Amino acid sequence: MLLSDYFKIDTLHQKLFYLKLDKLKIIQSKASRTSSFLVSLSKKLYGPAQISLNYIKSWCIEKSIIQNDPDECFVANFYIKDDDADPLFRLFVTTKNLMKNCLNSNHVCADAAYNLIWQDYPILMVGTTDKQCAFHPFGIALCINEKTNDFEFMFKSVQLAVEQLYNINYCPIIFVADASGTITNGSINVFNVVEKIIMC
Hints:
The protein is α/β, with parallel strands linked by helices. It folds into two domains: 3-46, no CATH class; 53-199, no CATH class. Helices cover 36% and strands 26% of the residues. It has helices at residues 14-23, 31-46, 53-63, 96-99, 148-166, 181-191; strands spanning 74-81, 88-94, 107-118, 121-129, 135-143, 174-177, 196-199. Strand 6 (174-177), helix 6 and strand 7 form a beta-alpha-beta unit. Helix 5 (148-166) runs parallel beside helix 6 (181-191). The longest helix is centred in the last third of the chain and has 19 residues, at 148-166.
């Protein structure tokens, strides 16, 4: 039996690997060899750590079909520019239930989340709050940058999803965000009329 047959998802961490070797009474090799083995095993089991733009595009196309299950995620909108000099991608992921949060809200909250990143790219969050100040997301956007165009894409994706699901033109009048001009400009460019901007 091969050594790799003993291991599952939760044992690919190096410390767990050593514990597993101790339990199996297998002599441990040098740390560099073990690390190299774990990297190659991880690639074999889960594929490469970096994902190509072609893979992202095919995933977005596959997930752009709206499912009957209201909690099943789908890609509401995506843009991919596969250019070697200046590659770019943007995608917005949501569910039917998350988009229901738009129906009774006249204000929108947005920000970039750096404690939740994917391949070193920030996740852009958009949603609303209730009277108890609880945040209710509409969905998340994954973009290479955190510029005005990226926030425009996210807000436009929310509008398109609400229109597609509920045949309503979503246009909030109150906007809540930090002092970032990129977020504010992105919302004004999409929603045109923002009566009140609240900075938090």
